[in-house]
Automatic annotation (TrEMBL):
Gene3D superfamilies: Aldehyde Dehydrogenase, Chain A, domain 1, Aldehyde Dehydrogenase, Chain A, domain 2
Location of the Aldehyde dehydrogenase domain: 11-428
Record PROSITE patterns: ALDEHYDE_DEHYDR_CYS (PS00070), ALDEHYDE_DEHYDR_GLU (PS00687)
InterPro entries: Ald_DH/histidinol_DH, Ald_DH_C, Ald_DH_CS_CYS, Ald_DH_CS_GLU, Ald_DH_N, Aldehyde_DH_dom, Aldehyde_DH_NAD(P)
Similarity section: Belongs to the aldehyde dehydrogenase family.
Protein name per Swiss-Prot or TrEMBL: Aldehyde dehydrogenase
Length: 464
């Protein structure tokens, strides 16, 4: 059994008594200070692991955590407050309240694509809820995993620990009786995590992924859409779980959209993105080979490369690439791309787009670009996804008054803000009997009691 788990789990009962608002705020402040103290190391680690430019690291790794901490500190007192609830008719004479309490000891398994924010962001919620946590950072981003360990070393050892390693380490941790598991990664591994959690009956939050589509309407501002799509798709070289995966566009506007996307790619990354200081790299050789193979296969089966397509295996560089004339038998239409490849698919009727979206697993995000409200509402109403962005991509992740999470294949549960606090909390109901006549409903069931029960059931059936 993990020594870190034993140490943290041993203090669970004591934390219920002593880890109150003041202590939780102190832990969050300590985390914020530790991130600031290791800022230069964070920038260097993300550059080494993913080739991330400083601005992108600050925007997508540091800012989300610091914003989450600030938001949590502002609202934590209210989230922790015991809430009174009104009695229902059947419970007149009782008093009820809900007490949020920590689930206990949590396991946070972080991915490699945003290896800092997706390790420490859930930690903010765990600490806010009063839980201790073991973080298992991704071994595929080793420099950042090391920095995460150094940051956590600045926090109390009986509150947070880091376990580094690969699949064997993750498997060993999943076998332990954690109270809650927070996993971010692929749906395939999410199923493994959920199966492991079932053995110990741990609750889970699964932040997964999927093929997040973009639907462009006939009235969309194509220049604005292209800017948002290019930013959302090519940030972090496309290695983002909510990145646009493919674009549906009215067939008559396909050429104009591609021209606008080409112009935006040039504006953002220059004529040669490989030389740009703003474009990241693929995480490793295996993922590079997968992405390059998808482009090659699509070409062989008849797809056309409208933009990009160039690659450098040694530099782990794949240019921002736009494909047209793709088809269902190609890998680019079957698997989550998770890289800088964007199929653009022309359509004639919105119905065919909705049918294609609904025929596949529910995506983590869906994006709509259109001015006309009826079109927007139809797409929202007739599809299911973790979230919807209207005339915007990615930004809903940063909105801390919105839950972030998937549905079905794209995830289970929600994170961020109060939803993250709730993920690591048990909302314990407490019912107090003041003067409820409950004895009237207990055996022996005399004729008078039976009449009362019948009358009560009839009344409640009418008015609830």
């Amino acid at each position: 059994m993990s020594a870190a788990f034993e140490r943290l789990a041993a203090g669970a009962i004591a934390r219920r008594r002593s880890f109150g608002l003041k202590e939780r705020r102190a832990a969050l402040e300590a985390l914020r200070a530790a991130i600031g103290a290791h800022e230069s190391a964070i920038l260097a680690a993300l550059k080494a692991d993913l080739g991330k430019p400083e601005a992108e690291t600050r925007l997508t790794e540091i800012l989300p955590i610091q914003s989450e901490i600030s938001h949590t500190l502002r609202h934590l007192r209210g989230w922790m407050r015991v809430r009174r609830v009104r009695p229902t008719l059947a419970m007149l004479g009782t008093r009820a309240r809900i007490r949020p309490e920590p689930k206990g000891t949590a396991l946070i398994i972080a991915p490699w694509n945003y290896p800092l924010s997706l390790a420490l962001g859930p930690l903010v919620s765990a600490l806010a809820a009063g839980c201790a946590a073991v973080i298992k950072p991704s071994e595929l981003a080793p420099a950042t995993a090391g920095v995460v360990a150094r940051i956590v070393a600045d926090l109390p050892a009986d509150l947070v620990a880091v376990e580094q390693g690969g699949v064997e380490t993750a498997s060993a941790l999943l076998a332990l009786p954690f109270d809650h598991i927070f996993f971010t990664g692929s749906p395939e591994v999410g199923r493994v995590v959920m199966a492991a959690a079932a053995k110990t009956l741990a609750s889970v939050t699964l932040e997964l992924g999927g093929k997040s589509p973009v639907v462009i309407g006939p009235g969309a501002d194509l220049a604005r859409a292209a800017r948002m799509i290019a930013w959302g798709k090519f940030a972090n070289a496309g290695q983002t779980c909510i990145a646009p995966d493919h674009v549906f566009v009215p067939r008559a506007q396909e050429g104009a959209l591609i021209a606008a996307l080409r112009a935006e790619i040039t504006r953002m990354y220059g004529a040669e993105p490989k030389a740009s200081g703003s474009f990241a790299r693929i995480i490793n050789a295996r993922h590079f080979a997968r992405l390059a193979g998808l482009v090659d296969e699509a070409r062989l089966k008849g797809a056309e490369v409208a933009v990009g397509g160039t690659a450098d295996a040694q530099a782990r560089y794949l240019a921002p690439t736009i494909l047209t004339r793709t088809s269902a038998e190609m890998g680019v239409e079957q698997t989550e791309l998770f890289g800088p490849i964007l199929p653009v698919i022309g359509y004639d009727r919105l119905e065919e787009v909705l049918e294609r979206i609904n025929a596949g697993p529910k995506p983590l995000a869906l994006y709509v670009f259109e001015k006309e409200r009826t079109f927007i509402e139809r797409v929202c109403a007739e599809t299911s996804s973790g979230a919807v962005g209207i005339n915007v991509t990615l930004a809903h992740y940063l909105h801390l008054n919105l839950p972030f999470g998937g549905i079905g294949n794209s995830g289970l549960g929600a994170a961020h803000g109060i939803w993250g606090f709730r993920a690591f909390s048990h909302e314990k109901p407490v019912l107090e009997n003041r003067f409820a006549p409950l004895g009237n409903f207990m055996p022996p069931y005399s004729g008078g009691k039976l009449k009362l029960i019948r009358a009560m059931a009839k009344l409640l059936g009418r008015i609830g």
